[in-house]
Amino acid sequence: MSDRATEAARWLAEAWTSGNPLAALPAGMAPRDAAEGEDVAAALLDALGQPPVGLRIAPDGLVGPLTAGRLVAAGTPVALSGLRHARVTAAVAAVLAEPLGAGLPLGAEPARFSALHPALDVAASRFSGPGADPAAVTADLAGLGLVLIGRGRAVLPGTEAVALAEGRQRPRGQPVDLAARLEAAAAEARARGGLPAGAVLLVAGLSAAVVPVRGARWTAVVGALGRAGAGFV
C-alpha cells in the first residue's frame, strides 16, 4: 500500500467516523485512476476496521467492497441526516454457495448462489459536493451508504420484472436479466482475487435512481424474489 493511498484513506476515515464532509481530497493524495481508488478503498477499510463481506456494483457501475455494518434488514427506518447526497435504487444481493475462484473469464464457471435477496440500495457520499470524479468515488467505497435486505429465496437467477415503488404505488417493472448482471459481478470479484462461500454479491442500479426525502417510503420490487423497502426519516 503506497503512502499516498494510506494518507488519502486517513482523510476519508475521518469523514466516515466524524460525519464531517470532505470538500475534496488534496491533489497530492487524490487517486488518479480506478486502480489507485481501489487501493485507497482497501486502506480505508483497514483504517475503519471493517473487513469486507462481499462486493457491491454501485448504481453508476463502479465497484466497491460491501461491509457488514452497512447491511440492514428491510423495514429499518433510514435516517437521511447521516447519508449525504443519498440516491436509492433497486438491487439484488446474492449469497455465494461456493467459493468464487480468481482469474476465470466471464462465463467460464457460473457462480452458484445459496439465496437471492431483493434489496434497496441507498448510495451516499463523504464529499460535501456532488459529482466527485470516479476515482475519488471508488476510494469512498464506491458510494456505499446502506443496503436494506429483504427475505432471501433459494432460486436460480433469471429475468425478473424490477421496479422502484414509492409509497403504495404498484408500478409495472422493467425486465432485468439478473443472471447476466450477477455473472458480470462475479467476473469483477474474480478479477479482484475471488470470494469465499457465504460472501455477498450486491448489484445495485437495477432501476432508475431517485433522491429520497424525509417522510417518503421506497420499495424495491424484484419479481418472484419479492420486496425490500424502508421509510426515510
Automatic annotation (TrEMBL):
InterPro entries: Fumarylacetoacetase_C_sf (IPR036663)
Gene3D superfamilies noted in UniProt: Fumarylacetoacetase-like, C-terminal domain
Organism domain of life: Bacteria
GO molecular function, one term: catalytic activity
Protein's name in the database: 2-keto-4-pentenoate hydratase
UniProt lineage: Bacteria, Pseudomonadati, Pseudomonadota, Alphaproteobacteria, Acetobacterales
